[in-house]
Amino acid sequence: MKIQEFNTIIIGAGPAGLFASIHRKGGKVLLIEKKPSAGRKLLIAGQGRCNLTHEGSISAFMSRYGNANKFLKNALYGFDNIKLIEFFHNHGLGTVVDKNGKVFPETERSVDVLKVLLDACIKARVRLLADEPVLKVERINEKFTIQTANSIYTSRFLMIATGGLSYPATGSSGDGYRFATDLGHSLEPQVPALSPVFIRDFTMSELAGVSLAQRSISIYRQNRKFAEHRGDIGITHKGLSGPGILDFSRHMQAGDLLKINMIDTNADEFRNAIIAQASQSGKQEIQTFLKSFELPKSLLRFLLEELQISHSMPLAMLTKDKRIQLIASLCEYPFLIDRVGGYNMAMATHGGVKLTEVSPKTMESKLVPGLYFAGEVLDVDGDTGGYNLQAAFSTAYLAANSMNAKV
Ligand SMILES: Cc1cc2nc3c(=O)[nH]c(=O)nc-3n(C[C@H](O)[C@H](O)[C@H](O)COP(=O)(O)OP(=O)(O)OC[C@H]3O[C@@H](n4cnc5c(N)ncnc54)[C@H](O)[C@@H]3O)c2cc1C
Fold first, then answer.
1. What is the pTM of this model?
2. Residue nearest atom 27 of ligand 1, based on CA coordinates
3. Which atom of ligand 1 is nearest to 53's Cα?
4. pLDDT digit string (tens) for 33-53?
5. DSSP letters spanning 87-141
6. Parent domain of 209
7. 163: helix, coil or strand?
8. Which listed site, 76, 121, 198, 342, has its alpha carbon 20 to 30 Å from 246?
9. How many separate domains does the chain show?
10. Do 272 and 124 fall into the same domain?
């Protein structure tokens, strides 16, 4: 088999690998992709609209990556959301921001984002080899040897940018974890992140599509409150989704009980409000009273029916028992998790290459000189809102520039 030599080899042409290739200056760069074309996950990002990043201050990004916040600090400050937006503007693609601060390309088409990256790779004379899965990676005589079914490639620098395990049909099916461990790295266990949850004996299917803005979600495990979070919630045919659930799903598991405060008012305040209103205007219908709590009409109807409380019942007629049930239903509605969605529906992977073995200042391995990591193959996963793509671009930029700085 013919051996071809490069200065730098980057495995994986997702956002991290493409961005690193564009910014790696000096020497021949080979970007190897397993799938017949690059950036397949990028194309489906943001439901094809590609939520590139978030408009918030970069300091606000620092709470969006769980345990990886500290590790990402250098990368995010070195190449922040403003620089990312500038990059796309300078390459002819403007951006727009939605009401939640999410940044999208102005065309709202992922394919335009991918085109900018691919054109920039051509301009930077990156050699992109698609449909060429890397099978094996070794370090022999201070060089990396990369084997595919057709060829052997060697290089001084190697970057693993193979992504995580989610949506394996896009190409990221965990190969990079194997390459990393073959080279001596260890891994944090992986679980799906940013995934919807399926609820046991779910009775709200007819409400699929209904959403609640900024509600509190508590997780109970073995009868003890384990974690609490706020966010937007969406009802699906078989359970719950929406940013609040997705962002929190990395902490959930089958058998956990979720309690959702449907009215964003605590139980004591709600009880006091019912009692006060019943004594002031006892003839007021319960549905009129509940209007100010901003519950979608269909959900309110469902909850009252479930409790067998007539929506036109005067407040003064509400018995103590029914009042207790109403408070429990609206302030702590219980959902038992049957399962958390798997990798075929998770938007990210929690876990991956252990961060303590990678320098946060350069993205270079602390164990193997010349080996770099970028993107989701690392134990980095962010919230929904553009945080994952920003992390992929920022870590790739840092890694490429760290290589550039080496003589
Ligand atoms: C449905 C969905 C929607 C999303 N939407 C958003 C969004 O709007 N905003 C956001 O910030 N994030 C979003 N994400 C997350 C985001 O897309 C990822 O975090 C990001 O793509 C990670 O980039 P990456 O380059 O590290 O990995 P990937 O994008 O996974 O790219 C890795 C590449 O490596 C290649 N590869 C793997 N193994 C090999 C091998 N052996 N040889 C050669 N090549 C290999 C793969 O084929 C793939 O092309 C979404 C994810 C999903 C699944």
1. 0.91
2. 163
3. 11
4. 999 999 999 999 999 999 999
5. HHHHTT--EEE-TTSEEEETT--HHHHHHHHHHHHHHTT-EEE-S--EEEEEEET
6. 196-341
7. coil
8. 76
9. 2
10. no
